[in-house]
Structure formats: structure tokens, C-alpha cells
Amino acid sequence: MSGTGSIIEAGVPSARSRALAVLRVRSRALAFGLLPAAVAVVLVAARATGRLAGEPWPAVTLVVCAVAALVLLVGGTFAAVVLRASPAVTPTVPLSEAAAPDLYRLVRDLADRMDVPAPSAIALTPDCDSWLEDRTHGAHRRSGIAAGPESEPGAAPVLVIGSPFLWWMRVAELRAVLAPVVAGTGPSAHPDIADARGFVRGLDAAVDVGSRRGLGWIAPPARLLLRLCRTDAAEMERGVARAASERAQDVDYGLRMVAQEQVGLAYAGWDRLLTRVALPAWRMGRWPARLDAGVVSALTELSRRDRLAEGFTSRLGERPACDLLEQPGAVDEATSLLAARLFHGGPAETGPAWSPVDWAAYPEEVVDRKWRTEAARLHAALDALDPLAVPAGPSPGSPGSPGAAGSTAAAPARASTPVAGATAAGSTTVAATGSPAPPTVDGFTGPTLERVLGYLTDPAGQGAAGEALAGRLSAELAREERAAGTAAGAGKARAADAVPLFPLQPPRSGRDLLADHVTAMVCCAAVDSAGAAPGLDWLDGPVLLVGGDRRPDLAARVLCLVEDGNPEPLRDWLADLGVRPEKPVRLV
To answer: What is the C-alpha to C-alpha distance for residues 144 and 211, in angstroms, rounded to an integer?
Structure first.
């Protein structure tokens, strides 16, 4: 039984009948567009043979011919847009056969066993999913999106594989997961199904063209046709999936049940890795260059913590699917950069403000830098909101300090009043001359955690100071993002990646931002005065390490300060750790 010939799976007759229903929508739209022209031809023929002589037939014929010409012009333009508009293509990392000969052999062996056409090419996506994607549209060849064998007319679809699967799954598991996906090339080769899919994709692309290129009148009829064939198109795809599942049922069926458990685990670990680990680095202008390798560590840790995942780590002794690649490291780096582009809006190429970071350097180059940047932003917001306080000066040796090269002149001292809740060592007093006496600790001055605690302490529980500080931080971050977006838009290539296609998280609230910044300040103080260290947790991202162990009890105490204005739980935590809140911290 050939994949391009007669197909007898249960889902194919249903899929073909639904495909014909979609094509009937196209036929009716074509008939509607040709109807005025047909009427015009009849009238002209009748006039020419003398059957419609006298008034009002000359005027009627002229009006009908004009309407027919207009409808043909509009319909022809619409059809041309539908035929030429480029359907959306998922951004992927192409994987040539030379780069993964063993993977290509595995996929072709699957296709031969199921008697379906082999995919024309393989590509990777930084997501936990796999599918077939048709790239034979002429617009793809003209634009250079697809230039290989996958772009030839009548070529089989491209097999897109989620890159986390290659690193986490074993070879046998990947084979079992890909079997029903590869089986979909059989129904895809059916002429009616392929034609119906092309029509739906063309309509979808026409809606996008009408919205982006000023052809506003194109979008409404395209949306109308999409609504008319939406149900049949969805049922057609269900039938195709059912047929593919039927055909793949005899290929590694028992192992597929086990492999599906790994798919669910991969989803959970990959999401945590992106949102907790990769996102903080992306926001700092760094992109982890080995995300897929990191997902193995994240999922191993998840397996260790989750009782439901017990025993999953024993399979790590089997051959990983990434061994099917010739250069796994290079492929991992390419998919990691694509992930940053898709989920964060990072540029497509490395630059001075967008550089890779290895996992070994992550705590020092991302975590520590993130904390100190946020602590500096917090103190800048305090300076703006509390002009009577002594400006937070940098510590010696840091940029802007009196002893640092290239430093600027010190800001003039301003009159100040004691900060509420501050200790004697961290308070600010006013000398008889009216100038402030800055706090001195260990012979130098600088920003202190005590200042933050004093500002946010609110015995009445009104939270006005916290609200003001949260608003200031939100405004400052928005300004920084606008400035970054403006700079990003300066280059044409960079502008096309300036906005994430699939944002990972909604915008953070002001309270969340304030809690993050206060936590960062606390961590900086712990590192500088209590011997703590920045660390990386594969599931939770940046963490504070004390004696090599995590301190997960900080978040609740910070929230108590930020939301209730109560600093006592945090002060107790600092005292237990040996952190001196009155001691200045380094912000750069």
C-alpha cells in the first residue's frame, strides 16, 4: 500500500469528505464571482442575435457588463492575493542531512515501515512539540524562506521536532513519539486534502496581507470564507490525525505510552527552565547558549523532587536522542538563540549588548549582575522620591566613586532628615552648618539596605511609601524598555526581532517589581557582608546560597515588608544570617 495511493485508514474517508466540503466553499466563491460575467455574456449574445431588441435592453446590458467587469477585477485581485500570499512559516533551525545523518535514517526507516512518503527535510523548534509543515508554496521560494528540496512543488512536508525532545528523550522514545507524526505524510499527500489545506492557508495569509499592506478590503471576504470552512477544515485535520495514528499503531506502540509520560515531563521542565532561568538572563542582555543541555539538568531535578517522576532518571543511562546529531553543541546554541528571539524578542545575532553565557558563569555574570542592577535601580528610585535623604554614593573603586578612574564630580550634599526606622549607624544627621553628615561604615559610604527598610517601614499599614516606590520602579522600567526598543529599531534586521512572538509572561505588577528589587538588595547585602553567594537552581532560577545551601525562606519576609510595611521578620532573618543592613553594598 503506497502512501500516495489508496489509503484505507479509518480517518482518511472522513478527512477527504471534509476536504471536499472545504473545496466546495472555494467553488461557490468562484461561481459567485463569475455569475455577473455569465449574465453579461448571455445578454450580449442575446443582443447580438436580435432576441433582446429595443428599450431598456441596451442600458441593462451596459450596466451588467460594467458590474461584471468590476466583479472580475475585484475577484481576480482577491484570487491573486490568496494564491500569492505567503502562508506563515514557523521560525525553526534547519537541520541538514549532513548534520544529522542518523536522525534522517531513523525518520526514513519509520516512513518505510508505515509505507508513507518520508519528510522532505527536518527542522528543530525550541518548544516541546512536533509537527509536519508544508513549505511548497511559491511565495516561500520567491522570498527565500524555503530553498531546499522541501520547497519543490509536490514535496513532502517538513518534519519539525521540538529540540528539548532530542536532549531529554532516549532514541527509542523519540522514535515512538515521532511515528504518528511521520505517518501524517500519507494523508498529506492526498490531492484533495493537500488542495484544501492550501486554500485555507492562502485565506489565512490573505487576512494578514490585508491587515499589513493597506489592502483593507481583502481581509473581510477572506475572513468570511474562513468562517464558512472553519468547521470542515478542523474536522479534516482531526481525520488526518486519526488516520496517522491508525497507521502508526503497530510501530513501537507499547513504548509510545511510556514516551508520552516523558513528553509531559518535558513540558513542565522546559517551561520552568525558560521562565525561571532563561528569562532573567535575557532581561540582562545575556542568552544561555545551552538551553537544551540545561533542560536535562532541570528535568533530572524535577524527577528527583516529584514523587510521580521517581524512576525516570534511571533511563538516563540509555542512548540520548541528541547522539543522532553530528554536532549537538552547535545545534543547541542555534536553538537557544532562536528561543531567545521567539520568547523574549532578542536579536537574531550576537552583539555587544546581547552575548551568550555558559551555565558555569551564570551565577556570577547573570545572577549577581541582576541583583546589583536592580538594587541600583531601587536606590535611584529612592533618590527621586526622597530628595531630603543623603544621595546614595557609590563604594570606593566603583564607577562614579571619587577614587575611580573616569568618575564624575560628587553630587552636592543635600539637607536631610533622619530616615524613619533607621538604626543609629545608618541614620543621617544634620550638622550645625546645615550640611548632612553621611553615614560612615568601615571608612566609606554607600547605599545601604537600612535605607530601604526604613523607607518601607509603615507602622500604620497604609502602604503609601511602597505604592509610590512601586510606581516609580514601574515607570523607570517602562522608560528603559522604550529606550531599548528605540535602539533596537535602529537596524532593520534587529527591528524584525524587537517584539517576542510568544511572550512567556504577562507584564509584572508594581508590587511584584518592588518585591524583586528589595529581594535583590537583600541578596547584595548578604553577599557583601555575610559571605553568601549567588547561585543557580535549575527549576527556580537565581537563588541565594549560604554555605552552599539555598535559603528559600526569604521571599515571605520580603513580602511582609513590601505588602504590610512590617520589617521585623526580615530583620530577624538578616540577624540570623549575620547581615549588617547598615553596611553599604556594591551596586556595580
So the answer is: 23
Distance CA 258, CA 206 (A): 42
The candidate with the shortest Cα–Cα distance to 510, out of 334, 417, 381, is: 381
Give the separation between CA 446 and CA 438, rounded to whole angstroms.
Answer: 9
Distance CA 190, CA 566 (A): 68
Cα radius of gyration rounded to whole Å, the chain:
32
CA gap 108, 120 in Å, rounded: 10
CA distance 538 to 128: 18
- Reduced to 3 states, what is the DSSP secondary structure of residue 200? helix
Centre a 10 Å sphere on the Cβ of residue 248 and count the other Cβ atoms it contains.
25
pTM of the model: 0.80
Who's near 182: CB < 8 A, 6+ residues apart? 107, 110, 111, 114, 116, 118, 119, 159, 248
The amino acid that residue 313 corresponds to is T
Q: What's the Cα-to-Cα distance from 321 to each of 120, 173, 411, rounded to whole Å?
A: 20, 8, 59
pLDDT tens digits for 139-186? 666 666 666 777 777 788 999 999 999 999 999 999 999 999 999 998
CA–CA dist 178, 109 (Å, integer): 11
Task: List pLDDT tens digits, range 200-258.
Answer: 998 988 888 877 766 788 889 999 999 999 999 999 999 999 989 888 888 887 788 88
CA 45 to CA 42: how far, in whole Å?
5
| Distance separating the N- and C-terminal Cα atoms of the chain | 68
Report the interhelical angle of 219-247 vs 171-183 (nearest 10°).
120
How many Cβ atoms from other residues are within 10 Å of residue 98's Cβ?
8
CA 90 to chain centre: 13
Q: Taking Cα atoms as reference points, which of 279, 160, 159, 225 lies closest to residue 27?
A: 225
CA 251/CA 176 separation, integer angstroms? 7
